[in-house]
Amino acid sequence: MCGIVGYIGKKEKKKLILEGLGELEYRGYDSAGIAVMKDGKIDAFKATGKLSNLKEKTKNFTSNGEGIAIGHTRWATHGKPTEINAHPHFGKHSYIVHNGIIENYREIKEMLTKKGVVFLSQTDTEVVVYLFEHNLENSKNAFEAFEKTVISLKGAYAILLITTIEPNSIFFAKNAAPLIIGKNSDEVFFGSSDAPLIGHVKEVCYLEDGQYGILDKNEIKLYLNAKKVLPIFKDLPQDRSFAQKEGFRFFMEKEIYEQSSVLGETLMGRIKDNEISLEEIDEHLLDGINAVKICACGTSYHAGLTAGYLFERFAKIRTDVVIASEFRYKDPLLTKDTLFIVISQSGETADTLEALKIAKNAGLKTLAICNVDNSSIVRLADTTILTRAGIEKGVASTKAFATQVATLWLLSIFIAQKRKTADKKSLKLEIDTLLKIPTSLHVDNAVHEKIKRLSKRYLHGHGFFFIGRDIFYPLALEGALKLKEISYLHAEGYPAGEMKHGPIALVDSKLFTVALLPKTMLYDKTKSNIEELSARDATILVISPEQFELADDFIKTKNSSHAMNEFFEMMIILQLLALEIAVRLGNDVDMPRNLAKSVTVE
Ligand code: AGP
């Protein structure tokens, strides 16, 4: 998730902007930049890597006196984390910083290229500043040009733009990405979250989707649908740590709640006219491919197992899913007609990286599903599809898993398109369902409150079974892992049909079973597995759209027409269940004992 800061006033601007960007470091980034306008002239600096590199570059630069400054930390989604791709991006007279994804950037870029614009970067953001300058040519003033620009954008954006054409003002726009304005009597601050504004202002205006405007240090002109609206200011909480967690108790909780918006970014620009469009995938990647091997660790392995069902069912391609640490030493049989897919949030997991090397040395085509651009795995794989989850601070993976599954689901449809293994109707159903997933990831507060109450019953016992069938089996594994990681209680995920092959011997009233009972997938089969457990006095929490009379506890989910809707809704419940049990046990939810966010050793 990128970070944005802005300032109008007479304080020293470089220091203010760099400090503000420092308050946004928790959002993760791989490059940063600043632009300062003073006396009608703009100075700009950009650097890859940490903010210290930008500080080094600007050490001899100061900017006292009246002026305007904007700053940005970038988490690469379109284009590598290079200095050219870092923000601010610029045209002839103007500089821009942007958070979000411009969905129609390709069409805009084509139009501007035809008019002779030469783009330097691979980013979607650069087209906005050039579109603004293109609109300047046929507008009566800069604001009209900016308004025309904003109206033609599709997708998610939080924008700050400065231009020597209007040297005392800053232009801003907000849609589906946060942007906040804070003001004092003779200065104004901008931020993409509360954190950089704390200590500078007492009240802020949280801009609404679709709002845009122009602002100088005396007046904010705010618009919505070309009509002027009044900015609404409210008190700014002054607790920085609280702000970085955006009001949640833990980063993990924040990351569970932001899965809905993050999934929107994962899908942004990748579904067009009822087709999956993956610009990262070379059109020949699938040439000669008859099988897929997926390799990963931990939660990423569970995403891979889920993908295994989707690839075989929909793309009709044989798919094998292996744990990287096992794959490395099993003398695997590898054939060149196999596409080797590695999945990794960090892109630095040692076992997964080594497995990738084995596949590459065997001459296989390789694809990484990863969240961190320029990571070791991304640099090694032939090609990468970024999951765009933004930084994940919680060691127990949540939004990384959700975006991995969504990305792999996208890929299964893409492969089905290419191999023509699905008719238009089935493709459309998958795509229509996929497009609604961000909505189904909204956390239902009533459900969360119920889980908080329910969790008090699951703090002891001699362990948990998490059971499910088909794609709900890897989800059961993931639910068990979440609980283990942060509550330190023993839990196992199992295929529901496996209980009678041994595990059922463990069953008694102190063995807690969390049963995933979707209506759209093997309902009756799973129901009878649960009944077997209930008959042996297991204590059972059933998660299902339909009331289950034998459940000791029950969490109702929505009726859906597609298994993946049920999958994501039950995923949220499992994440929250693990969280609330861990909270009751007083554990460090974000930094559980013995665990690291990235396992870079064997
Ligand atoms: C999941 O909650 C854990 N953090 C862990 O299992 C993780 O998924 C695994 O270590 C793989 O990490 P990666 O996705 O960064 O490769």
Structural class: alpha/beta
Bound molecules: 2-deoxy-2-amino glucitol-6-phosphate
Total domain count: 3
Instruction: Estimate the helix proportion, in percent.
Output: 25-40%
> Helical region count?
18
Determine Rg (CA atoms, Å). 25 Å
Looking at the structure, the CATH topology of the largest domain is Glutamine Phosphoribosylpyrophosphate, subunit 1, domain 1
Average pLDDT score: 94
Global outline: globular
Give the low-confidence spans.
none
Q: Describe the sheet with the most strands.
A: 8 strands, antiparallel
Describe this structure in words.
This protein is α/β, with parallel strands linked by helices. It has 3 domains: 3-244, Glutamine Phosphoribosylpyrophosphate, subunit 1, domain 1 (4-Layer Sandwich), CATH 3.60.20; 251-440, Rossmann fold, CATH 3.40.50; 445-584, 3-Layer(aba) Sandwich (Rossmann fold), CATH 3.40.50.10490. Helices cover 34% and strands 23% of the residues. The strands form 5 sheets. The protein has an 8-stranded antiparallel sheet with strand order 3-2-4-1-10-9-11-15, covered by helices on one side. A 7-stranded antiparallel sheet has the order 5-6-7-8-12-13-14, with helices on one face. α13 (399-419) runs antiparallel to α14, α14 packs parallel to α18 and α16 runs parallel beside α18. The chain is globular. The mean pLDDT is 94. The structure holds 2-deoxy-2-amino glucitol-6-phosphate. Residues 297-300, 344-346, 349, 352, 395-397, 485, 598-599 line the site of 2-deoxy-2-amino glucitol-6-phosphate.
